[in-house]
Design goal:
Layout: H1 2-18, E1 21-29, E2 42-50, E3 55-63, E4 69-75, E5 105-112, H2 121-126, H3 131-143, E6 148-153, E7 161-164, E8 166-167, H4 171-191
Antiparallel strand pairs: 1-2, 1-8, 2-3, 3-5, 4-6, 6-7
Helix pairs in contact: 1-4
């Protein structure tokens, strides 16, 4: 049994070491804004950061905005995780192809994080003056809960709905957790 557990742990750690894509979920709402607003707008998004291909794939569906969309981008880093406001990190004034002038919609796009055009120029300057420095800073902000995706509207120019990027556990992490819980249960059962 010990060999089986050791083999499974080794396989899971190898799978985890090979992973290059970190997935983040984003729950958009007015109460997530700072300061909070009463917008009934909501949305759900995903951001997949590939640290080997140096891309950030973004997807969102949103609805119920009080105003029409004027911009959307990722901000970061905040001074504290999941709190406060920060400057724009990605393209300004908006992500390329994001639907503007609507109260609901969807978006899907991918940023090439090796290209300066994927960032706000001020963000690049503040992080070493290179896309590599900007990518490193953005990746750290996302991993630290200090990056949020904002959708701005005509009713709320500073942002109608936003959501912080929250890491989604990868399957191998869940497998390791399950394996560990199973091993502990087996061990406790044997002691009884």
């Amino acid at each position: 049994m010990k060999k089986l557990i050791l083999s499974a742990l080794t396989a899971c750690s190898w799978i985890s070491a090979q992973a290059a894509v970190i997935e983040y979920s984003v729950a958009f709402s007015g109460p997530n804004e700072f300061p909070v607003n009463a917008s009934p707008g909501i949305g759900f998004g995903l951001a997949d950061y590939d640290d080997v291909a140096h891309t950030l794939a973004l997807q969102v569906n949103f609805s119920g905005l009080l105003g029409t969309t004027t911009a959307s981008h990722i901000h970061g880093p905040t001074t504290a995780p999941f709190f406060q406001n920060a400057g724009v990190a990605t393209t300004t004034p908006s992500l390329a192809g994001f639907p503007l002038g609507v109260t609901s919609g969807s978006y899907s796009g991918t940023l090439d994080l090796t290209s300066a055009s994927s960032y706000n120029p001020a963000f690049v300057t503040a992080n070493g003056g290179t896309p590599a420095g900007a990518e490193s800073a953005l990746a750290a902000a996302m991993a630290g809960g200090e990056a949020y995706w904002n959708i701005h509207s005509s009713s709320f120019p500073g942002g109608e709905i936003r959501g912080f990027l929250v890491p989604v556990p990868e399957p191998s992490t869940l497998a390791l957790f399950g394996l560990g819980a199973g091993a502990i249960a087996w061990r406790l059962r044997r002691k009884v």
